[in-house]
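Risk register update: the risk that structure generation would not scale has been downgraded. Supporting records follow, first protein first.
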Amino acid sequence: MGTVWRLTAFELQKVYCRRGFRFSLCVLLLLNIFFLWYTNLGNGSAPELSSYKMFTEDIKDMTEEEKDAFVSGLKEKTDGLSFVARILSMQESEVGQFFVEEEMAEHPGVFEKYYDIYAAGDYLRYTSSLELESIFVNEMYEEEKQAANYSEYLESVQRQKDMLFGISIFAPQDSDSFASRNLQKSADDHRALSADGIKWTPSKTVCSSMENVWTDIILLLHSFLFVGSLITEEKQKGLLYITRSTKYGMGVGIISKLSALLVDCLLASAVFFFSDVLFFGYSSGMCDFTAKLQSIAPYMESAVNINIIEFMMLSVLTKALVIFGVGAVLTALCIMSESIVPPYFIGAALWTLSWALYRFVPAASALSAVKYVNIFGALRTEELYGKYLNLNIGGIPVSRLLLAWLVIAAAVSAGIILSLISYLKGEKLELKRAEARLRFGFRPHDSVFRHEGYKILIAEKGLLILLLFGILMGYNIFHRSYHPTAEERYYQNIMLRLEGTLTEEKRSLIEAEKARYREAFSEIEKIDRMTAANEIDSETAKAMKIKWNSVTAFYPAFQRVEAQAELVCENGGCFIYDTGYLYLLGVLDENRVGDFLLLTLGILFAFGSVMSVEHETGVWGILCATAKGKKRIMQSKTAVCGISAALFSQIPFVCRFISISMTFPIRGLLYPAGSIPIYRDIPQFIPAVALLLFKMLVQAAVVLTITFEVTALSAWRKNHVQVMFFGFVLLCAPLVLSVLGFNFAQYFSLYPLYACAF
């Protein structure tokens, strides 16, 4: 046994000491953190992680009774504010006016109670809009109520069994059916549970950490990488023939390799998921990990009597064993194969088939056991330990958890046995050298620019990298939702009607709106005088003001219309709906750090080796002697990178233009830019489109500056790894710190210039 452990340590040391493996491991870890950050960017359609963190801080010292009262109060308040917003939105349209009285009658007193709070505008605590606030509070309310009613849930499980067994359909002759057995087993499995130790906490941190599919995928890639370093590289060099001939080279040798794989799976799973917990703990708040697992609402159905930290440790262990089982099978395939490709193809196909079964087989079908009992189903530990399910195996309810562990044991056993047999047989311990030649037509030319463009964009995959990062940026931008308020919809409606030059019809429309607001303010003032003179009481005054308050609620939006009308009357020009322009030009707050970080990463990955590759391959000595020389080559490289970066820099702007214009129409591009009140000092002959073109030019200039910095780093360090390191530290680290909440860090980058408003 001591020999096995010594050889295991040697195998681990042999793999971990390889610089390429360590570099790949760091890349996978950074990639995992990147996907954690990127997939949780706020896109306007869901609450941000910071919302959960603030909420967790608010309730951390509360008792369960105080949490219930606090969440119920938030729910009542947001429902009231949403009701006010809905009434105002209905007031905006003539058709909606018919439903206002009906809504007010169904919810008496709600509008009066919450209108002043809504009008004050300082009611948002956790999110940036009322819609998101309502979504977030409803989510917290549902989770808290589930945890608060856990005792009732346990009672209902026992009650259902007692009730159904009392019904005549479950007569003695039917007591052996799957339904009756399942009810009995469910009641027995839940009988030992109680509400003691339930401490409700938002589920975001734990669920997001343990259900992250990207981390699972990266763990699989890591296992493929480790097996490749453990077996494939040795087969390439023919080292397996040597190791098999040593004293412990047969059975002990392969056992030590499998032991090293097991240790690596355990370490990698712990490291990757620990990084997930740290990320979400910092971003969305830490919870009480000693609380029972059922304190988290999505895991309330669990019949496992453990706390949260035990659930997380058990999940990591289970995932590690699943990865090890498949890795052991992959090890056997690598030993048996004379080529590199087939083992990894079979491994990928095995995971794909397992995923397809889990994804597409209906849960209620006769093949439900196949859906859950496979390696992908075993990897979903939140389902194994956080949910409760019995599968029908020949009329007998069998726990999904038990079947999953049988699958894990089968995969581990199969991998170990196949690896032992294939290694002991020793028939294919060396890879065949396959030579593949691709023949393309060759057209001689002397264009250094074309040649360098092909090298950078095609041979070194620069175009593919820029395309991938462009897709990521487009995905993020198009998934961002905009939620215009009732006031903004009013402003949009009236400005689109006024669009263009001033006419008598448009002047009449503005005057009619002014008269409507004057009447409303006059009536409110009249009611206030009657209240002051004790002619009516305050409750009657509130009821009388409802109609007029719903009118004046839109007055701030109309003041924007008046400002533009005044500008058009004084300086000429045209009416133009400007909200979309203000978003695009950075006047209205829109966080673009994520886009800028992706732009920077795309430039760094695409052009980080543009100069250093010649040093690493040692060809500068030859190139310097050519007719064009080193200077011309470097100029061509810089030109290719600059043109590509300039085009790449416009992807987020174009995507944002399309996304914003779907909610806030961007029209009147040829109208004078000076018609927009904030740009009133711009001469009338300059069109609005010139502002957008200037913004695009500024952003392109910033990205070009980053490109030249990357190429300068590449020429300075002459080593790709060092270029990537310095690039991350100098260009990306300030942006990452800014995303994590250290806003001052952005001033150590070019982001303020990229996002500047003008």
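Supporting record for the second protein:
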Amino acid sequence: MSTSTPHPIPGADRSEADFEAYLRGLERKDLLRFITCGSVDDGKSSLIGRLLYESQLIYEDQLASLEADSRKVGTRGAEIDFALLVDGLAAEREQGITIDVAYRFFSTERRKFIVADTPGHEQYTRNMVTGASTADLAVILIDARKGVLTQTRRHSYIASLLGIRKVVLAVNKMDLVGYDQATFQAIVREYREFGARIGLTDIVAIPVSAVVGDNVIERSAATPWYSGPALLRQLEDVEIDSAGPARPFRMPVQWVNRPHQDFRGYAGQVASGTVRPGDRVRVLPSGRESTVQRVVSADGDLSQADAGQSVTLVLATEVDVSRGDVLCACDAPLEVASQFEATVVWMHEEPLLQGRQYLLKAGTRTVSATIAPVKYKVNVNTLDDVPAERLELNDIGVCELEFDRPIAFAPYAENRTLGGFILIDRLTNNTVGAGLLHFALRRSQNIHWQALDVDRNVRAAQKTQRGCVLWLTGLSGAGKSTIANLVDKRLVAAGRHTYVLDGDNVRHGLNKDLGFTAQDRVENIRRVAEVAKLMADAGLITLVSFISPFRSERRMARELMLPGEFLEVYVDTPLAVAEARDPKGLYRKARRGELSNFTGIDSPYEAPENAEIRIDTTRLSSEQAAELIVETLDRAGLLTPRVVATP
């Protein structure tokens, strides 16, 4: 077989005109983005490798490398192992599985393609979500010997969630079942029934053998009973959704482009619709309006820009626009809200917990989002809604989200860019989840801030002190409550206004409905942090005495406060010392198995990394610790009122 490319790529014997003609021809072709997905070892990488090989889309040096790799680490003996063309990681080649998403660009005479070969192993479902997020079509592979599996259903469900409506069902390894028509039809019938339940109705089923090449490029004589298209022909002929330009104009602002003092523009990619000079636009969430004066691209001014183009818009009037804002058509503005129902695909080993805060990136805006609450997760086999309070790795669930500020959005079904989001762990900056917004909760539209004339400055002046929070954290038995009580007594004796929120006391009332699971502990701290914020706003010096084992929740509490008005006090006591004290007998119960999820025994304690005050209880007595805290308050100026900006 020839190894030459199928395109007139200019070489040493080609002129510059030939090269430019080739590039112009490439620009005129439309682009199809598609993914390959399915269960482990269904042959995804082999299929893409065979597709490129048979289409003569492999360069000679690539083919030479592929042949060498096939002899060294291939699984086909003397034959070429086409999977190696796509599986680029060493671990993938060693294990024979796809781990990362492998992107490949190729072009035929009729169309350009970007294919994302996504992993089949359940552990790497997160990578499949990445590949599917920009795809127009999914090639779902099924091993003809195994039929429809759980991972097949999971990937199909995720593809449907992410807005993919066109599916090619490639029933692979037909050579291993003797090209049996009944086997193929049974698999197709089962998949179509499942697909119809999740909104996948545009399904083209093709019997293939990636290893042999049957029905990959051309129809195969081995399946005379099949009258449909070969895989490549279907990919070339399928219609691509072009509804983007017909929708109203939306453009998230990526950055403010100001190369010099005489130019200010707002750069971004048009998410939908069309924009022209003279169009009226609205800036959201602020609601300010202006007129587009210029549409600027790398090649100069344009008469219009369409969905998918990256441009800079110059407005006729000076308005406040910054990264994360959205420019949209005045006559069809977006909604603005801060509370939503959303679907989340969880992609991390640590579970998603109700009440925990994460960073959420939607479009170009990043906000703080609280999970409140998880409503249910989806059984991908039965599609039943299963009640849940948390999401584990690879779970797909529906939850409510509360943002710390309003954002402009569109439901994901209308706009992928403005309705899709990722969740980021606040401590590690790892991406831990991905999801899509359904709709704004009605209550978020009906609740507004009420302006009050008496603010925190007035209350602080009245008490001649600054409202603040002293957050004492440490193991059970460390001495937090004892120290908090002593600090409280000293401050009251000095005429200060204080209050103590103690972990045990709060559980008798406000938090009596909560247990000690990880999600209940998160909610326990969330409620107390909100109460502490209100008390500090009232001008009180608030002492919070809670184990609060998780750094993320303590950080959440800190971020509710103004800078300098939250002091973390780490009551540092070794586990052996705390357990030896055991004033309430809790460690003994935990050791006997009578208490589950007990911090330090079968539940972790995440020690503070940068606490304002660290108290080593092996060196300081409770009285000395209390004195140190009061001195720190005085040095920080928290015992003297001053005017601060009201949040």
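The longest helix spans residues 518-537. On this basis the risk owner (M.S.) recommends closing the item.
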